[in-house]
Amino acid sequence: MTEPPPPQSTEPPLPPPPSTPSTTVIHPRREPFEHGLLPIPKLIFSDPTQTLISFKHKLIELSSNNRVDSVAVSESLQISVEQAKLVVDTIASILPYESESDDTVDVHDLVLFLYIQSYKRLLPRTHKDSAAVADVWPSTSAFDGYLSALSPLQLVRSNSKRFTPSQADEESHQLSYLQKHMANIVSLLAEPVEGESEESLVLTMDRFEHLGLLIQYGDKGSEGSSLSQSSPFFANSDPDMPAVPVPASQVHDWLLENIASALEYIAERTSSKENGPVSASDQDVAMTDASTVSVKVSTSARGASFIEGISKSSYAKHASDIKGSSVKVLNCHESAIYILAPLRYATIYGCSDATIFIGAVGKVAPFNTFYSQLEEHMNEVGVLPTVNRWDEPIALGIVDPHDSLSHPAGVSDVQTESATRVDPDQFTNFVIPNWLGGESTGSTKDNPFTLPEAYMASQQRNEKNLGEIRQLLREAPLEESRKRELSSALHVYFKDWLYASGNIRQLYYLQGD
């Protein structure tokens, strides 16, 4: 598809905006690109710009204060109401500010969200055995199939820059996408000057602010101030007076200039890392090629922590260890990982045979467990124990259209197998080891989520049976020698279970800590 020329304006040119200071670099916001892409084919258009401009005008006519609900989204996009609600909820979760309403979405945020559904994620170089699919979570990507074919040690050794994109690689990829599509993105937000031709496009300060869904300035982004206050166009606007609209072409040129500077900055940093010594805090440090467990744990300056390459080990992070509001757990195998912290986002990718417990996340289902600070952490990220819809999953496409791999024809029409409830008789408590309680004691004494009746009854029945067995053992009319034999037999069976389940590893790791 041929890209349209940048939006043109017949307005008298404004003075050229000042260059961005070298200490402030434009960044793509990770949230929409990492958490805002939905595998719903009807959200991707062959001609997104013209389709979405028409779609925007139609919705604005139907909207109240430029906001629409999921029913309007469903009817306009011809998707189910359930999928439309997912779209609205997803946009609310990735906005740089708190949404005005849980039930509606701003039309301009919606069209930007729909436009970036064309984004293709940066994936590692594929392998000749990439079609294999095994027990790696999530398992819908051919990349995951390749990872699952490796042993943990092989995976650690192959997990280098040759196969796994660094955070700098991903940011460059996102910036390059924005660079290529910025003319279209700006045109989705621009509006013609009243009384002039359609080619005379301008951006008001309000429309400009919507770009904050996709870009931010500095490492902390627009958390402290709005995007418009970081730009030369509206930085000195009088809050009591409406700001003068800016020609869309000038906004476009200024954004391209800053994106080019950011790409150059990333290239220089990457080059200096490859040619210089690697520091302990370097988020792109390559993992060592050794037979010992090689772990990459790092924190991005822009608020994401990464836990990568843990194999056959137990690992824990507390709230004080996590910098920022998101965590990525990547390529971890045969391990138990505990993250007892409040988070907005969590990504788990390329993991197998691993138990990963994350304390409180704004969009992740809870374990049947608790720790002393759980309710405090839930409050921080807005998780309500009274709202329990974890058993109502939405099955989407089995193939993610946002990855960069090709897929067999027709496979996109297949849906994933929907999750099912665990049988109440198989439902158990998940126990967090006491050795993780090193931080200050909180007020949570039990699971704050109320169990469904069938599961509560099963849990109470199991606890009652365990109590009765313990009492029978204590009161059994056995001689001391026979009691010792019984105790020894129980220990043997318990040890067999530890080995069979793999939980024996955790005991070994605890001894080494």
From TrEMBL:
Protein name stated in the entry: Uncharacterized protein
Organism name: Trifolium pratense (Red clover)
Higher taxonomy: Eukaryota, Viridiplantae, Streptophyta, Embryophyta, Tracheophyta
